Each structure stands twice: as structure tokens, then as C-alpha cells.
């Protein structure tokens, strides 16, 4: 099942009070008279927890790395990420972010792992998503678990070098979407390619990662990888558009996503 990112604007909820006209200043009245009371819904405050794994080496994130829950809608439109809560990674490589308000996340929640001082000297900011449909039935006090990816600075540098090696002028700083492309059984959809429909898609760059960095992560023996190798496609500076995968004998649903400047993010495209 494909998780679709759909750009939505959150609706605000306000209490209203009714004024029933003029009042004689000599009268003493109950302040609650003529007022319609509306109960505010209880905020759906939950905890978001998970383990961490580095993109290329699979090691846990270092203790003290920041874990921040954000909502991406405004950032996809060129604004800033909306912060819902934050914490740090513990000595075991795990995190817990408390009091995350699900009602403030109509599109998705990203768990962003990053340097707390934003220096990018230890890691490159990386967000792992939780689609809104995954928490639409959750209530206050629940716990959401999302094991999350982080990218060490050395890995980010290697990805940038690999982009240059295949002729791309883009880098991680332009925003990078990593699309996990899977068969219906959850295995890498080997040979599949990624495409999109929308503004900017004619110039789409999609590269297919392999497990051998010695000749570049997106090429093998000097030739650019033509399709999915280990299940991961990299889209640097990708436009906000409907993305899908293409492979003979398979049908993939589309997924709406796009790059966010200065952030690597992960999405999934899976065959039906």
C-alpha cells in the first residue's frame, strides 16, 4: 500500500460567544447568561518513539542527536517546517518525543534527526514520515512508533560525490527525496524506474542507489544504474508532484511528494 502525501491546509477551530444586545449598566447579571458554551475537544497528544539506523552503515544515531517531530505542509509550499515537539537520541540510539499534537498534523509527521546546533557536522537533517492515515484513529495518550533513518555527514558527502559523478548539478542541500520502491511482497522492485506528473517533471532527476560506493552509489562499472537495484531511488531537488514507479507486470499507485530544501526525506512507493 502506498502512502500518499496530499498537500492540505489545516482548518482552525475557535470558540464563539454570542452578544445578546445592550445591557442596562445598573443591572447585575450572571456572566454566564446568554452565552453558548462549546466544549473544546481534548488535544490528541501522543508520544512518538523509535530506534535509529544510518542510511548506509545501519549504525544507531549517536547519543544527543536531536529528534524533532515536524509537520511538512508549509515547507512543501516554500515555507518552514512546523515543529510539534523535540527530544534527543539516548545512549541506545532510541528516542521519545512527548506531547505531539496529532490535530496539528493534517498531512503527515516527519521525525527529523539532525544536529541540535544545525551545524550539519555530525549528520545531515533527515526526516522519516508517518502518513496521516496511520494515526487518524489514535487518541490522546497513545504511542506512535516509527523507526527512523539518519544520515551521517560522511554518507551525505558520499551521496553528493556520487551525484556529481553521474553528471548532476544538484546536491543534498537542494532537498533529497529517497523513494523506497517495493514489490507487493515488500521486496525491492529491481529494475523499476521512478517518474512523476506535474510541473517540473520534464527535468526530473532520479538515480538508483546500489550497495557499492567504490564506483559511486548511482553507477556500476562506469554506467549509470538504469533502475532500482537495492530498493532505493534518490530524487534531488524534485518538484512537488505525483510520483509513481514503472515496471513491466506491476502496477504502482501514485504518491504526492516533493523535496524540501536542506532536508533528506523518505517515502514509499509499493506495487499493488
Tags for this entry?
Immunoglobulin-like, 2 domains, 8-stranded mixed β-sheet, 18 strands, 6% helix, disordered N terminus
Task: Categorize the overall geometry.
Answer: globular
Name the structural class: mainly beta
Which spans have pLDDT < 50 for at least 5 consecutive residues? 1-33
Count of helix runs: 2
Question: Helix coverage percent of residues?
Answer: under 10%
- Could you give me the name of the CATH homologous superfamily of the largest domain? Carboxypeptidase-like, regulatory domain
User: How many distinct beta strands?
Assistant: 18
Q: Strand-and-helix sequence, N→C?
A: EEHEEEEEEEHEEEEEEEEE
Mean pLDDT: 87
Under CATH, the topology of the largest domain is which? Immunoglobulin-like
Cα Rg = 23 Å
Name of the CATH class of the largest domain: Mainly Beta
Question: Biggest sheet, open or closed, and with what strands and sense?
Answer: 8 strands, mixed
Structurally, the number of domains stands at 2
Distance between the termini: 6 Å
CATH architecture term of the largest domain? Sandwich
Strand order of the largest sheet: 3-2-5-7-18-10-15-12
Strand content: 25-35%
Summarize the structure.
This protein is mainly β and about 270 residues long. The chain contains two helices and 18 strands.
Question: Secondary-structure map with pairings?
Answer:
Blueprint: E1 45-54, E2 66-71, H1 73-76, E3 82-88, E4 94-101, E5 108-114, E6 123-124, E7 126-131, E8 143-145, E9 148-152, H2 153-165, E10 176-182, E11 193-197, E12 207-208, E13 219-220, E14 223-224, E15 232-236, E16 241-246, E17 255-257, E18 264-270
Parallel strand pairs: 1-8, 1-9, 7-18, 10-18
Antiparallel strand pairs: 1-4, 2-3, 2-5, 5-7, 6-9, 10-15, 11-16, 12-15, 13-14, 16-17
Amino acid at each position: 500500500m502506498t502512502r500518499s502525501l496530499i498537500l492540505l491546509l489545516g482548518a482552525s477551530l475557535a470558540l464563539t460567544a454570542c452578544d445578546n444586545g445592550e445591557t442596562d449598566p445598573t443591572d447585575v447579571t450572571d456572566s454566564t447568561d446568554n452565552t453558548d458554551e462549546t466544549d473544546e475537544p481534548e488535544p490528541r497528544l501522543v508520544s512518538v518513539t523509535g530506534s535509529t539506523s544510518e542510511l548506509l552503515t545501519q549504525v544507531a544515531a549517536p547519543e544527543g542527536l536531536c529528534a524533532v517531530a515536524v509537520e511538512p505542509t508549509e515547507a512543501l509550499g516554500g515555507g518552514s517546517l512546523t515543529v510539534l515537539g523535540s527530544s534527543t537520541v539516548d545512549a541506545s540510539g532510541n528516542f521519545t518525543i512527548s506531547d505531539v499534537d496529532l490535530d496539528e498534523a493534517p498531512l503527515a509527521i516527519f521525525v527529523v534527526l539532525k544536529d541540535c546546533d544545525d551545524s550539519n557536522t555530525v549528520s545531515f537533517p533527515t526526516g522519516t514520515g508517518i502518513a496521516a492515515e496511520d494515526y487518524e484513529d489514535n487518541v490522546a495518550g497513545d504511542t506512535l512508533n516509527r523507526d527512523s533513518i539518519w544520515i551521517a555527514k560522511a554518507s551525505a558527502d558520499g551521496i553528493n560525490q556520487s551525484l556529481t559523478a553521474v553528471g548532476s548539478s544538484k546536491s543534498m542541500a537542494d532537498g533529497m527525496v529517497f523513494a523506497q520502491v517495493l514489490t507487493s511482497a515488500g521486496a525491492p522492485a529491481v529494475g523499476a524506474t521512478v517518474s512523476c506528473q506535474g510541473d517540473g517533471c520534464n527535468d526530473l532527476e532520479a538515480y538508483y542507489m546500489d550497495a557499492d560506493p567504490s564506483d559511486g552509489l548511482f553507477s556500476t562499472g562506469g554506467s549509470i544504474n538504469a533502475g532500482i537495484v537495492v530498493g532505493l531511488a534518490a530524487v534531488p531537488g524534485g518538484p512537488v508532484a505525483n510520483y509513481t514507479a514503472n515496471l513491466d507486470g506491476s502496477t504502482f499507485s501514485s504518491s504526492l511528494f516533493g523535496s524540501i530544501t536542506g532536508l533528506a526525506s523518505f517515502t514509499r512507493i509499493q506495487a499493488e
